[in-house]
Every structure is written in C-alpha cells, then in structure tokens.
Specification:
Chain lengths: ~350, ~170
C-alpha cells in the first residue's frame, strides 16, 4: 500500500474534458483539520504520528466506498526524493509538501484524480484534479471524498466561520478551485496582461504552472479563487467557471485573429517548434516547455495534424527533471537529463531514432 | 483627463515614476500604455500569502508599532500567542479562532469581504445547523411581513418557527 510508483500517467493529463484545447486541468482543493488537534506546524512527534495513523486508517476506510478504486497511503518519508519530486511535477502534492517529510503523507486514488495531502499546512488537503474544464465535477468528487472521510474523523468546524484552517485566508469553505489554462494566442497578441489583470479585480488570482510563487512558463496560467468565506462552494465554482469561459473566448478569438492576420508567421513558428523538438539532441526543460507550448498551439489551430494533443500534454510533465530520472531509474546530471529529454521527445513524437 | 500620448482617448492608466529622484507622472489610455510597453504583467514571484497577512495585521500602525494590545492574548488550548500569529500568519489550533475572535474578525472581513460561513456543513451536527439557518431565514421573512403589516403571514411564520425550534429539542 505504500508503493508510490503509479502504473500510468495521472488521469488529468489525458487531454479529455470540456475545452481541453485550452484548459489543461481543473482542480478543487478542500482544507480540513481534525478537531482538538493543533494545526500541523505545532504538532509534536507523538501528535504528528497520531494524525498520520488516523489518516492511514481513514484511507483504508475509503476503499470500502469503491468510487476511488484501490486507495494507496504513501508516507513521504518512505519514498525517494526523486519520487517525491515526481509527485510535485504531476501536481499530486505541493512543493511545500515535498519538504521536511518526516510526518507527511499523501493518499492517492487508483486513477490519481484524488490526492489527499496529510500534514501540509492543514491536517488534510483533499485535492481532485480532472482533465479539461470540469470544475463542477471536481467539486462534486472532492465533496464526496470529504463526506466519506467524515465517517472516520471529526473535522474542526464552527457555525459562523465554517471549516477552520491554519491560515485564515482558507477559512470557511476551505475551498480553492483552480484551472490550468494554456493561453499562447493571448500571449502572442500581447493581450494576456490585460485579460489576466482584469481577473484580479474579480476576486481571483493568477499564478504560474506550479502554483504560488512560480513563473508562467510555456504560456500556462493557473487561475483560482481567493475568497473562501461568505460564499457557498457552488457560488465560488460558478464564478470561476464564468470567468474561465470568458478567457477561453478571448483565447479563441486571439487564435482566430492570428490565423487571419498572420497565418504564415504562425505556421512558421509552430512548424519550427516541431522541427526542433523532432530533431534536437540536447534539450533543456525550459526550452522544451516553450516549444511544446508552440506545438500545442499548432495542434489546436489545425496546423500540426500529426501530433495528438495527449502527447503534447504528457510531454509537459514527462520532460520535467524528476520524471526523467524516474524513467531512467537513476539520478541524472543536468546534461544527462537534457540528452534524455531530447530522446524522449523524439520517441514520443514518433520520430525514428535513425532519422 | 485625456491621454498624454494620443490626446484623444481618456487616460485610464496613471503612473508615477521616480528615476534618480526625478518624479514624472504619466497619464495614458489603455492602448497607448500597451504600445509604450508601460503595462507589465507581473507574477510577483516572491509573493506569499503569509507575508500579505502579516502586512494586513500591522495595518494602520506606524512602522515598528505593534497592533495596540495591552497584553498579548494566549490561546488556552495550544498556547499560541496572537503575536505569533501576527508574525507567521498561521494560527496554532482551531480554538485560536475563538480565543482571538476580536482581533481576527476585522482581518477575516478584510480578506474575504464577509465573516460568516454560508457553505457546506459537516454531516454530523448538520441537521441542527440547517434548522438554525432555516429558522433565521424565516425570521427575516417574519420581520418583512411585520414591516408590511401582513399579520396573517406573520402569525403563520411565527408558528412555523415555533414548530421548528420544538422539533430541535
């Protein structure tokens, strides 16, 4: 049950779901804490071990509900640093969860659309991650997991403040809903800043690929709610969905304008990107993400017809440093990674090694 | 105010730049601002929610002056002080919410624009809370009915509240 090696890629990367050309994934996270136990950062050894034991028991109980398949409880101290980093790259745990791991764990559903972080900032953070735009579905699933866990444990809750969290910015619903969007046409037409700045005025935040404090490489942006109290979960989800729908419209319009006004330049750009990815022998992680962004744009515009969207999505994660090292089965130097990365991309794009 | 650049469209971007102690003010319309590259979208890489909170907590005070607390408040359950929360942005345990209620109320309001939870409630104890919320909503209707001098409706609502509260016991 503590095996951290999944057999396949997490489900959220499979390129399905509504508006999957623009929305990579939808995530809903619920923060929950156990009643009568200090928040994780104040736990002593005994208490931290007790929280781990209680959640391990609750994880086993989850199996009897069946809707999560076979659930795995993974104490993070028992897996290698590379495995932990892979979990970060797959968005199954946060970067903070991969540090100081002695009393931390993650509970994973069989298809890995549900991951529950144990002893992060809160005792439990239930995450549901689905492909494409599926916020309602992700919320429904997260709520179902919440209900199931509640049968095994009592959560800290106050009538007026709602679910109580270590940081008051999460109090109330404990809900953070976020959508990962690929917006290359808005960036190319210099409209991303305007479109995304207005998001800030609507009580939402924009971040980069790996959450708080990360840069938006590869034209990938995460948009999430900021307010967790005073609105019901459904309202928060609807509000975010409505804003995301607007941004999707803008991106589609920008892509149409590019095709109309600058077809040759766009065809050149995306074809060059595919050319480099199909032929390069040394490829850094940043260059890969930037080029894959261009290829994704080409696929979505119907210019590149031979690359499946799923392959482009999966490569975004498979070309990250820890993932490559897991594939190789050993630690790699940065230069070795660049070689491996280039080779993996060529294989995945269907280029013969002798070509 | 018209845009400094095109002098046609209204200026919606107002910037103050200080370069080598020289202050310049710039008022541009959106289009000119974009063309001049004055709008930059920043991802604020070092921004942390805890720092923001810590900033909010010291709001209103002079630099270096702590929020005016005669004595530091201590949570009777986990032993955390309000001061620790003000520094780290994290509370010690769920009981801190009651212990620091007076201090937290304005902060929660500022962060969320509200201070009362209206979302999901745990299944356990959910029934009583649901009833409470329902009763509150009927009470509001009752007030409105009285205000409109619709005493027939008011009597009906009052009976409804009574019945619900009785069912609670």
């Amino acid at each position: 049950m503590s095996d951290a090696t999944p057999s396949a890629m997490p489900r959220w990367m499979d390129g399905t779901g509504a508006s999957a050309d623009i929305v990579l994934s939808s995530r809903v996270r619920l923060a929950r804490n156990l009643e009568g136990v200090p928040f994780p950062h104040l736990l002593d050894q005994r208490q931290a071990t007790e929280v781990l034991a209680a959640t391990r028991k609750a994880a086993l109980e989850l199996n009897k509900f069946g809707f999560l398949g076979t659930v795995r409880f993974v104490p993070l101290a028992e897996v290698t640093p590379v495995e932990r980093q892979v979990l970060v790259e797959e968005h199954l745990i946060s970067p903070a969860q991969a540090k100081d791991v002695q009393y931390k764990a993650v509970i994973l559903s069989q298809a890995e659309e549900v991951s529950i972080m144990v002893n992060e900032e809160d005792h439990l953070r239930i995450q549901c991650l689905l492909p494409g735009l599926q916020l309602q579905e992700a919320w429904a699933l997260a709520s179902r997991v919440d209900d199931a866990l509640e049968q095994a444990m009592t959560f800290a809750f106050s009538e007026s403040r709602g679910y109580l969290t270590a940081c008051p910015t999460n109090v109330g619903t404990g809900l953070r809903a976020s959508v990962m969007m690929h917006l290359p046409a808005l960036v190319l037409t210099n409209q991303a800043a305007r479109a995304l700045n207005s998001v800030g005025q609507l009580g939402l935040t924009v971040r980069g690929l790996y959450g708080e404090g990360t840069e938006a490489i590869g034209n990938i942006f995460q948009i999430s709610n900021q307010i967790t109290l005073g609105r019901a979960e459904g309202e928060i989800i609807d509000h975010l969905s409505a804003v995301v729908a607007k941004i999707i419209d803008h991106e589609r319009q920008a892509a149409a304008a590019l095709l109309r006004e600058a077809r040759d330049q766009v065809e050149d750009k995306v074809s060059r990107a595919l050319g480099i990815l199909s032929n390069a022998r040394i490829m850094t992680s940043d260059e890969a993400i930037r080029l894959l962004s261009d290829v994704r744009l080409g696929v979505n515009m119907g210019i590149l017809t031979k690359v499946p969207l799923k392959a482009a999505n999966e490569l975004l994660i498979m070309t990250r440093p820890a993932y490559l090292q897991r594939l190789a089965g050993r630690e790699l130097s940065p230069f070795e990674r660049d070689l491996q990365r280039a080779a993996l991309i060529r294989t995945k794009l269907g280029v013969r090694q002798t070509a | 105010m018209l845009c400094d650049e095109c002098k046609k469209r209204p200026a919606t971007f107002h910037m103050t730049k200080v370069v080598n102690n020289e202050k310049t003010e710039l008022h541009l319309c959106e289009q000119c601002a974009r063309e001049k590259g004055e709008i930059q979208f920043s991802m604020e890489p070092d921004f942390s929610i805890h720092q923001l909170l810590a900033g909010l907590l010291n709001y209103g005070g002079e630099a270096g002056v702590q929020p005016a607390l005669e004595k530091d408040v201590v949570c009777g359950v986990c032993g955390s002080t309000y001061d620790e929360f003000a520094r780290t942005g994290r509370l010690g345990c769920s009981h801190c919410y009651e212990e620091f209620e007076d201090q937290l109320e304005p902060i929660i309001r500022r962060v969320h624009g509200a201070s009362t939870h209206t979302g999901k409630v745990p299944k356990r104890g959910a029934r009583s809370l649901m009833v409470k919320r329902e009763v509150q909503s009927i009470r509001n209707q009752l007030q409105a009915a009285i205000a409109h001098e619709d005493f027939e409706l008011a009597a009906k609502l009052r009976d409804q509240i009574k019945a619900m509260e009785k069912g609670q016991e």
